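Sequence and structure are kept together here, with a separate record for every protein. A complete record is shown below as an example:
=====
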Amino acid sequence: MATVSAPARPGTRAAGPTRRVPTWWRDAAGLLAWGSMLVVVALWVRGGGLQDLTGGTGAALTTSGRLTGLVAADLMLVQVALMARVPFVERSYGQDELARRHRLVGFTSFWLLVAHIVLTVLGYATSARTGAWATAWDMVRTYPGMLLAAAGTALTVLVVVTSVRAARRRSRYESWHLVHLYGYLGAFLVVPHMVWTGRDFLTAPLASAYWWTAWALVALAVLVFRVALPLWRTGRHRVVVERVVWEGPGVFSLHLRGHGLSRLPAAAGQYFVWRFAGPGRTRGHPLSLSAAPHGDRLRVTAKVAGDGTAQMARLRPGTPVAFEGPYGRLTEAARTRPGVVLLGCGIGITPMRALLEGLAYEPGRATLIYRARSEADLVLREEIRDIAARRGAAVVELPGRRVPDRASWLPDWAARWDDAAALLRLVPDVADRDVYLCGPDRWMDAARTAALRAGVPAEQIHRERFSM
């Protein structure tokens, strides 16, 4: 294994944000989500839900449908709130975990919505002694708001079908993201039937007050953190492209400058969602900083992987840039130990390079492991070696194709090594360090498994991924 070790040089320590994320933020976010569902169930009980369970088959089915519908509606709000970029939630969980929870909550909400529809229709059909299909058609045709709810349900089904992993992998990100946005419209179309026909809104002022408050707070969070704050920061900092620099085969860096960027709460390891003036200006590009923030300048590095990144590579100096962020918890704030191990693969090296520069660590307490397909793909190589030499860090370069017959973070020429044993050989005290990961999903999964098997506690492993 090719290892480049830098000599320790005392006194070389990067200054950077060291504020830790308070542990109670995460607990508070979880309590709000679970608490909202408990409130919904309690309001259902207060509205006679338990008594209805003993009121005959039709009443039991209908009240069960009412409960599943209410919980599904509440989970839709939780799902939107998870991706609303509320700072204390985003910094507590990070994009990687939020995306997983967003997906889990979304599918759970969908199946509860299906149960709501089936149970409610069966309940009404049983009580009226009519057929289920005739009852469903009559409800859609005559009940206030039901036609809109049916349209909203259809949009929700479309979003769920396209979010199944097999379908997601076959879709372009831009197409999938556009369809995914219809989920918000679907949730909005479901609201009128709750207000116009829902028992809670018609007979229970307390329940009505809860739902209006919940909807207002979630809508406010989206408007403030996904719309107003990005617009304000874009207008305030007036970021433009300064220059485009090619770093290697198909890989380029965008150097950006703006006004007062030093006042942004940005840290090494974080990412922004960038939008560039010109063709495709509405398309957001989530790109990590590839250098620690410095004054009024930022830098991101990308690989040409489609039309969007190809257009970015052709941007001219002076092109205006809109942005959202900074986002992500792959920063100093996640630290639990004095030592760090940074593992980057492919273009995932970009936040690792920024962390190598921006994290606070003593000489000899940082190791960067760099996986790439070939020597030519080791972009930012000289920068990384220079930072390591200045700060007393070690760099391990592992070029080579992936191991063909197993999920591994190692290159093919090291296939004889066990993944965990190889990590321990490179960093014998890895269990006493924080481990940061960035790269393709399967590679990160393999690296995380190796770290766990090498004795690294799960809470010391930090990663960020942009896929859902």
